[in-house]
Amino acid sequence: MCPPHPADPEPARGPGPDPGPDPNQRQLLRELLTTYADLNGSVVDELDEEPSPLEFMRYVARNTPFVVRGCASGWEALRRWDRRFLVEAMRGKKVNVAVTPRGKQQPTRRIRPLLPHLPTTVPFARIALDRAPDALNLWIGNSRSVTATHRDGYENLYVQVRGRKHFALLPALCAPALAEVALPRPPGEGPEPAGVPFPTWDPDGVAVGGQEGVRGGEPSRATSSPSSWSRTDDEGFVLAVNYWYDMDYSGSLYPLTNLVRNMSFAQRRPG
Amino acid sequence: MCPPHPADPEPARGPGPDPGPDPNQRQLLRELLTTYADLNGSVVDELDEEPSPLEFMRYVARNTPFVVRGCASGWEALRRWDRRFLVEAMRGKKVNVAVTPRGKQQPTRRIRPLLPHLPTTVPFARIALDRAPDALNLWIGNSRSVTATHRDGYENLYVQVRGRKHFALLPALCAPALAEVALPRPPGEGPEPAGVPFPTWDPDGVAVGGQEGVRGGEPSRATSSPSSWSRTDDEGFVLAVNYWYDMDYSGSLYPLTNLVRNMSFAQRRPG
Question: Which SUPFAM superfamilies match (chains A, B) (predicted)?
Answer without folding.
Answer: Clavaminate synthase-like (SSF51197)
